[in-house]
Design goal:
alpha/beta, Rossmann fold, single chain, Adenine-specific Methyltransferase, domain 2
Length: 303
């Protein structure tokens, strides 16, 4: 069974994988790429896709979100124990009436936020297992599968009012565990992975998307906002590591021209690379009927 994302994450790439295939580097398809790196892991759709098709000597996955990487590490190290905890949570939730479901959700959210203040994120422990289970539970039962936190670092997404939901996808969690075998999981800013990159690396970069409008702004995956200055810093870093290390890279981002045809922010920022536009269906506003096909950018140095 091919592993798939176990969390819903804003900007997920599952729907775009078929289009991406046309732009993955030729060296990857020829088996010449030995190392795969993602500095912004998120839901991991591209990683799960590539690991099922290609053989790498080394895989490094990084994200700035502590909770996300903690959850990946628990699946990597204690998937059976995690499944047991999640199964219990799922049973309790599914057997409850809607008002009780909501009560359970907010109890779990409060416990999750309390744990964030006491957990040692640098030292793996059994406490991580319950915390990871809460992370998955909240993602499956919250509003629209969002991960969002306030400036205090508290998870603050409201209840999703979902009657039926799969909280514990046992088979997929086991497949994810298998996919993560020997993978290096890191937490931190994208720049700290520079030392891992070499000429035999494929680097897939999927940062928080630049919002298409003020009301569409959503970059609160961590306490540190990812704004236009962050996008410029990322572009500068990408150019430097690609020039210095000789790696292959592909980068995804929103297409500002969806909102303003004259907005050349990324076209100028990455003008020395290949830029193509692919189609994606996104929730482009807060209303349920705000879904539509829009273009997204795919930027790369070779194909």
């Amino acid at each position: 069974m091919e592993a798939k994302p176990f969390l819903k994450w804003a900007g997920g790439k599952t729907q775009l994988l078929e289009q991406f295939e046309d732009y993955f580097p030729k060296r990857l398809k020829e088996g010449k790429i030995k190392r795969y790196i993602e500095p912004f892991l998120g839901g991991g759709a591209v990683f799960f896709h590539l690991i099922s098709k290609y053989n790498f000597d080394e895989v490094i996955l990084n994200d700035i979100n502590d909770e996300l990487i903690l959850t990946y590490r628990v699946i990597q190290n204690n998937v059976e124990e995690l499944i047991n905890v999640l199964s219990s949570m799922e049973k309790q939730y599914l057997e409850a009436e809607m008002n009780k479901k909501e009560e359970i959700f907010y109890e779990q959210r409060e416990q999750f936020n309390n744990e964030k203040t006491t957990l040692d994120y640098k030292k793996y422990s059994s406490e991580w297992i319950t915390h990871a289970a809460r992370m998955i539970f909240l993602n499956k039962t919250c509003y629209n599968g969002l991960y969002r936190q306030n400036r205090k670092g508290e998870y603050n997404v409201p209840f999703g009012k979902r009657k039926e939901v799969t909280i514990c996808d046992k088979n997929n969690l086991i497949a994810v565990n298998y996919a993560l075998k020997d993978v290096i999981l890191l937490v931190g800013d994208f720049e700290h992975i520079s030392a891992y990159i070499d000429e035999n690396t494929f680097l897939y970069i999927d940062p928080p998307y630049r919002p298409l409008s003020e009301t569409a702004s959503f970059t609160d995956y961590s306490k540190i906002p990812f704004n236009d200055e962050s996008q410029k810093r990322l572009a500068k870093w990408t150019k430097e590591v690609i020039s210095r290390k000789g790696a292959s890279f592909m980068l995804s981002n929103s297409d500002p021209k969806n909102a303003n045809e004259k907005d050349d922010f990324f076209d100028e920022l990455y003008k020395e690379f290949n830029i193509v536009r692919v189609k994606a269906v996104r929730n482009i506003n807060s209303k349920g009927n705000g879904r539509g096909a829009i273009s997204e950018l795919l930027i790369f140095n070779e194909c």
